[in-house]
Design brief:
alpha/beta; single chain; six-stranded parallel β-sheet; flavoprotein; 2 domains; FAD/NAD(P)-binding domain; seven-stranded mixed β-sheet; Rossmann fold; about 450 residues
């Protein structure tokens, strides 16, 4: 009897789970649900357009989707088109892997001013995500931007703002974004962190790339590169942090560099206190910062010094972390932004070790928004191991007969909901590549959902 599995989310976490399930169980039938017409999640809409090598993993995911035991249901939203309760009735196993589609907030005054966006929103905007295409990004009258945060995503958005549009125009960046960047007046970007260069959260690879941008001057306060005994201990215990710190030291310039018309300034030991409004009371005009320092040891505590300063800017991008969202009938830890789980098995509540039969989580929903694409493969293996153990112990409904995809099709049909198959995505993919080839790009993304559906559903309508 087939093991019917539904994976909600078609990003790296979802596809790695599907791949490993199909490899482990010859009798598995895996359906992948995705709320957008196009699959691949953050690989498509999160990876920077100037990092095409990172997107090669899509080839591996496509091979999984092409397996005859796997089906893709695009344009199907959990909670709107089908409920979690309905899925659990028609599948033996449901794996939630829909990631993190919201953001943490700073919780400071001025956060809702115009010109203030999360890094996730900005990434979706330049990557052609349907939810980001209408973001009111105006770069025509802005000369300075402030990025709050110093992780890899913060460096991504800063790099896109500073990189030459002519270099980006040959990538799969969304057309509306590259048009805006061509007329951008931004010449200076501050990347602000609450801690020092020793504690910066970025990787050496990402930092090296942004430090090497053509025509961009790098500025760092020389005093910020001074180290304490505690800093030296941290550097000795972390090769990653040492590489990052060494790059900061080697690349820092403290005087104006001739021939560089743009500037990237790293600001350390500063915490945002408020975002300042322009005279109209609507738009952002700057960031009010408090100086900070690290005290104590194991762990070191971040404290404010009581000294303040301002940075003038017309654009603020908050890169302080993604956050997952709950759905009805799903236990959720709102503080941690994850689903309580035991090796991927969804726990009924934090107060008990009991788990929900046949319900699992993977990826960011399981562990929080951390790690790289490859981290999801390790995470998926842990979840599939839990599923295997539960199948062997007859915990998963003792494999009683359920309708699986037939039941899902029935639910969607009753609601008159059209979905895109993987063949439909391949038509959409072919169209994007054809449009891109005309412009010398790998693809021109279809950012409108209606247009994507018209292409993806064309054959079904015939």
């Amino acid at each position: 009897m087939p093991l019917h599995v539904c994976v909600v989310g078609s990003g790296p976490a979802g596809f790695y789970v599907a791949k490993k399930l199909l490899k482990r169980f010859d009798f598995a039938r895996v359906d992948i649900l995705e709320r957008l017409p196009a699959p691949f999640g953050l690989v498509r809409s999160g990876v920077a357009p100037d990092h095409p090598e990172t997107k090669v993993v899509i080839n591996q995911f496509s091979r999984t989707a092409e397996d005859e035991r796997c089906r893709f249901f695009g344009n199907v939203c959990l909670g709107t088109d089908v409920s979690l309760e309905e899925l659990r009735k028609i599948y033996h196993v449901v794996v939630l892997a829909y990631g993190a589609e919201s953001d943490h907030r700073l919780g400071i005054p001025g956060e809702d001013l115009e010109g203030v966006f999360s890094a996730r929103q900005f990434v979706w905007w330049y990557n052609g995500h349907p939810d980001g295409k209408d973001l009111p990004i105006n770069l025509n009258n802005v000369e300075t931007a402030v990025v709050l945060g110093q992780g890899n995503v913060a460096l991504d958005v800063a790099r896109i703002l500073l990189r030459s549009p002519s270099e980006l125009s040959s990538t799969d960046i969304a057309e509306h974004a590259v048009k805006a960047l061509r007329t951008s007046r931004i010449r200076k970007v501050y990347v602000v962190g609450r801690r020092g260069p020793v504690q910066a959260a970025c990787t050496a690879k990402e930092l090296r790339e942004i430090l090497g941008l053509k025509g961009v001057e790098i500025v760092i306060n020389e005093a910020d590169l001074q180290t304490t005994d505690c800093d030296l201990e941290e550097l000795q215990s972390s090769r990653i942090h040492k590489r990052v710190f060494d790059l900061f030291c080697k690349s820092a310039t403290f005087t104006k560099c001739a021939g560089r018309d743009k500037q990237l300034q790293f600001v350390f030991f500063r915490a945002p206190v408020s975002l300042l409004a322009a005279e109209d009371g609507i738009h952002v005009r700057g960031v009010h910062l408090q100086k900070t320092r690290l005290e104590g040891n194991n762990p070191r505590k971040l404290v404010g010094t009581g000294e303040f300063e301002e940075l003038d800017c017309g654009l603020v991008l908050k890169s302080i972390g993604y956050k997952s969202l709950p759905v009805p009938d799903l236990p959720f830890d709102h503080k941690k932004g994850v689903v309580p789980n035991y090796f991927g098995r969804v726990r009924s509540s934090d107060a008990t070790n009991e788990t929900e039969r046949g319900l699992y989580v993977a990826g960011w929903l399981k562990r929080g928004p951390t790690g790289i694409i490859g981290t999801n493969e390790v995470c998926a293996q842990e979840v599939v191991t839990s599923i295997e153990e539960d199948v062997n112990r007859a915990v998963v409904s003792n494999l009683k007969e359920v309708p699986g995809s037939v039941g899902l099709e029935s639910i969607l049909s009753e609601k008159n909901k059209r979905y895109i198959t993987f063949e439909g995505w391949e038509r959409l993919n072919e169209t994007e590549m054809e449009k891109g080839a005309v412009k010398g790009k790998p693809r021109e993304k279809i950012v409108g959902i209606d247009e994507a559906l018209a292409i993806g559903l064309a054959k079904e309508k015939e």
